[in-house]
Each structure stands twice: as C-alpha cells, then as structure tokens.
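HUMAN: Quick job: go over this next protein and say how the chain folds.
***
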Amino acid sequence: MIEASHFDPAVAYAAVDRSRLDDQTPYIYRTRDYGATWQLVTDGLRAPSFLRAVREDPQSKGLLFAGTEFGVYVSWDDGDTGSPCN
C-alpha cells in the first residue's frame, strides 16, 4: 500500500504486509526523492504488529498514522519515530 504525501510530490510512504510469509515485522518505507531510494522508518513499532496501512494526515505535515494488526501507531516527525495510540 502506497500513500503519496499531501505536502510534497517527492514524498511517499509504503506499508508492506509480509504476514502471509510468516513475517510479523512491521515495514514502513519512506521516499523523499520520487521513489529513487526508500528508507525503512519503523522506530517505535514492535513485532508482532505487521502493517495494514499507513496514512499521512492531510492537514498536519509530518503526522503519520500506521494501522497494524494489533493497533494504531502515530508519528509526529514524518515517520522517524512512532508510538502507540492509547
């Protein structure tokens, strides 16, 4: 699943679900160069919590939500760090 940024055309986020391969690790990748390179941004997300979706808030730049199998995580710094929503 890929989410294009609402604020920068060079930025996008990809949520990768590998649960069917017995991989419960959360994977979110971010590109800042139109997809030429991708960076893994999962600091604060813990396995087993494989990703279902990633969404950027359309009004607050840098605010991301990650939907996992076991809950929702939020990042206030463009995915660099995440924490569970309580």
